Amino acid sequence: MTTNPNILKNFSIRAWHHELVMKEKEAGKLDTWRSKMIKANIPREFWGINLQNFGGDKKAKALVEKYCENIDEALEKGIGFCFMGPHGIGKTSLLMVILKTALQHGYSAFYMTLPEIFRQIYLGFEYKELLVELNQILLRTQFLAIGELGRDYHRKESQQFALSEFDSLVRQRRSMCFATSFDTNMEKEELEGTYGEALMSLFASSLKLVQVSGKDFRKTVQKKVVEDFFTEGEE
Questions:
Q1: Mean pLDDT of the chain
Q2: Cβ within 8 Å of residue 111, ≥6 positions away
Q3: DSSP letter string over 77-134?
Q4: What is the reported pLDDT for 4?
Q5: What is the spatial distance between Cα 228 and Cα 220, in angstroms, rounded to a whole number?
Q6: Which residue has the higher pLDDT, 163 or 210?
Q7: Of residues 106, 118, 122, 84, the one with CA closest to residue 40
Q8: pLDDT tops 60 at residue 154
Q9: Are the beta carbons of 80 and 70 closer than 8 angstroms?
Q10: Phi, psi at 144, each rounded to 5°
Q11: Low-confidence winner among 29-43, 70-84, 89-103, 136-150 (lowest mean pLDDT)
Q12: Is residue 182 within 8 Å of residue 209, measured between CB atoms?
C-alpha cells in the first residue's frame, strides 16, 4: 500500500518551515536571514536575541562569547554546552545565540526540544519517511541544540526505545565531531540519575556543563511586551 503524500506532509518537519517561509514572503517580510532562522527552527521570540542585549548570567554569557569567537574550532573538536538552571534565566537564549552565530558563519544549525524528538520518533513507527527526515536533521546538522532535557522520560517503559535512540544520537554526533548543545532544568546530580553514568561520561568529553543563575527575566520581558501593546498610542 502506498502512503498518501498529503498525509506525510502533515508529519514533515521541513514542510512546516517551508510554509512559514512562504507566508513571510507573501507578507513582504522575508529576507535571507529570516529564512535561515526559520529553517533552523529558531523560535520567533528569540530572533532578536544576541550577546549585546542578553541580560542574563554574565559568566555564562562570557563562555558563550568565547565559544562564538572560536566557533570554527568548536565544530572541529565537536564541543558544545549543557546549560543547567531554572526556567526563564536565559538558557535557551544562549543556545539560540550559538545557533545564529553558526548560521552567520555558513554552518548548518537546528533546534528541537527532546520531547519533540521523542514525538517524531513515535510518529516514525508508522511514518517511516519521517524517521528518515529526522535522522537527516539530527545526524547531518553541524550545530544542533536540544532543549528541555527532562527527568521524567526514563520512568516510562514505553519510552526506553526513545532514550536508547537519544543515547545513540549523542554518540554518533560525538564520533562525527558535530557540535551538540543542550539545556535542562535539572541539576548535575539529577542528570546523572536520569541518563546514567555512561552517557554523562560522554557528555563530559564533549560538553561544557554550565550552571546558569539569575532572575526570571523572560517573565519581565514578556510582561513589558504585553503592557506596551495596550499602552501604545495612549496620551
A1: 83
A2: 40, 41, 42, 43, 95, 96, 99, 144, 145, 146, 147
A3: HT-EEEEE--TTSSHHHHHHHHHHHHHHTT--EEEEEHHHHHHHHHHHTT-HHHHHHH
A4: 41
A5: 12
A6: 210
A7: 106
A8: no
A9: no
A10: -110, 130
A11: 29-43
A12: no
Query: Which residue reads 536540544 in cell numbers?
Result: 146
- CA 47 to CA 111: how far, in whole Å? 13
Query: CB of 150 within 8 A of CB of 186?
Result: yes
Nearest 5°: CA angle at 85, between 45 and 46?
Answer: 10
Cα separation, 78 vs 60, in Å, equals: 19
CA distance 158 to 12: 23
Cα Rg of the chain, angstroms: 19
> Where do the H-state alpha helices sit in the chain?
5-10, 13-26, 32-39, 58-69, 71-77, 91-104, 114-124, 128-140, 160-175, 188-206, 217-231
Angle formed at CA 152 by CA 203 and CA 192, multiple of 5 degrees: 30
Query: What is the spatial distance between Cα 210 and Cα 198, in angstroms, rounded to a whole number?
Result: 19
Amino acid at 127: Y
**Residue 10: CA atoms inside 13 Å, Cβ hemisphere, count?**
6
Residue 128 banded pLDDT, cuts 50, 70, 90: confident
Mean pLDDT of 108-122: 89
Set of cell numbers at residue 26: 507573501
Q: Find all residues with CB under 8 Å of 21, minimum gap 6, and list them.
A: 30, 35, 38, 39
CATH number of the 45-213 domain: 3.40.50.300
User: From CA 107, how far away is CA 129, in angstroms rounded?
Assistant: 25
